[in-house]
Specification:
alpha/beta, Isopropylmalate Dehydrogenase, two-stranded antiparallel ribbon, globular
Length: 337
């Protein structure tokens, strides 16, 4: 019997988006784990990404979007397929739309290994990736970075709360010596800081932050930053703590369901070979249990079981020989001793 079996029922509906290439393979492992530790959860599969383009012409079909809106959480596997890399309609367009539709403005990227235990809170639905873009008559191409104070304030408050629940240190990363949006960012961070006197706050320019992450990542607790800086720094933090293949993420709003997904790609070169590493998918499942469903005991159990499997049944990407199924079996064995 699962050690989590004594947990009172907490009926929730989870929309599972299996994604592309290795996506269905790693999603299947997460579903096995959830069915073991939380059998009362209702798990629904819906089309998303390249598979949805083939079926409907849209990476985010209306039926899938409606299911996500009404769910308690969205668990998403990686998307992407070389078939659509140069197409007008691409799988990645679906995730940008889904994030905007659910207004999941806070992207949490934990990085943990040895003495390093940090959390990046990245603003996810504003900035350069969502600004006005285009081509002028003279051939100039432009992308616009814009932020409203309210967008900065809400990610700042989320980050301060997270820092308060951890070790009480917050590093705000910007480029205030150059960018107007960063000067706004720094001003709002300082205004919000007045409500959190128990959190130590530091401003850091993004280039220095990258250098510090690469050379002394153990100094950080919570990092808060804008969309593009967060995209880059979170991948760097993942590389410092085991690689993108092991890294999870949670994208949260204030009331709508969160999106929980690994940060690695769909790995078409190994799809169907049964050797995909499901660690990032499982760690994202743990984040869903913790932040999306308020089940920290189950989340901790999954995290610990993944750590066991990484040591005892590593897949080829991290120097081992275990298959995806063997890794999953070791996770389940650790969950159900």
């Amino acid at each position: 019997m699962s050690p989590m079996a004594s947990t009172p029922p907490n009926l929730k509906r989870i929309v599972c988006l299996p994604g592309d290439c290795i996506g269905p393979e790693v999603m299947a492992v997460s579903r096995r784990v959830l069915e073991e530790i939380a059998p009362e959860l209702e798990l629904e599969l819906h089309s998303f990404g390249a598979s949805a383009i083939r079926a409907t012409g849209d990476p985010l079909p209306a039926e899938t979007l409606e299911a996500c809106r009404s769910a308690d959480a969205v668990l998403k596997a990686p998307i992407g397929d070389p078939e659509f890399d140069a197409a007008d309609v691409r799988p990645e367009q679906g995730i940008f739309r889904l994030r905007a539709e659910l207004d999941v403005y806070a992207n949490l990227r934990p990085a943990r290994q040895g003495a390093v235990d940090l959390l990046i809170a990245r603003e996810l639905v504003g900035g350069l990736y969502f600004g006005v873009r285009g081509v002028r008559e003279d051939g100039t191409v432009f992308d616009t970075c814009e932020y409203h104070p309210s967008q900065v304030e809400r990610i700042a408050r989320r980050a301060f709360e997270l820092a308060r629940s951890r070790r009480g240190r917050l590093t705000s990363v910007d480029k205030a010596n150059v960018l107007e949006t960063s000067r706004l960012w720094r001003r709002v961070i300082r205004e919000v800081a007045a409500d959190y006197p128990d959190v130590e706050v530091e401003d850091m320019l993004v280039d220095n932050a990258a250098m510090q992450l690469a050379s002394a990542p153990e100094q950080f607790d919570v990092i808060v930053t804008e969309n593009m800086f967060g995209d880059i720094l979170s991948d760097l933090a993942a590389a410092m703590t085991g690689g993108l293949g092991l890294a999870p993420s949670a994208s949260l709003g204030d009331s709508r369901p969160g999106i929980f997904e690994p940060v690695h790609g769909s790995a078409p070169d190994i799809a169907g070979r049964g050797i995909a590493n499901p660690a990032g998918m499982l760690r994202s499942t743990a984040l869903m249990l913790e932040h999306g469903l308020e089940r920290p005991a189950e989340a901790s159990a999954v995290e610990d079981a993944v750590d066991v499997a990484l040591r005892e049944a590593p897949t080829p990407d991290i120097g081992g020989r275990a298959t995806t199924a063997e890794f999953a079996d070791r996770v389940l064995a650790a969950l159900v001793p």
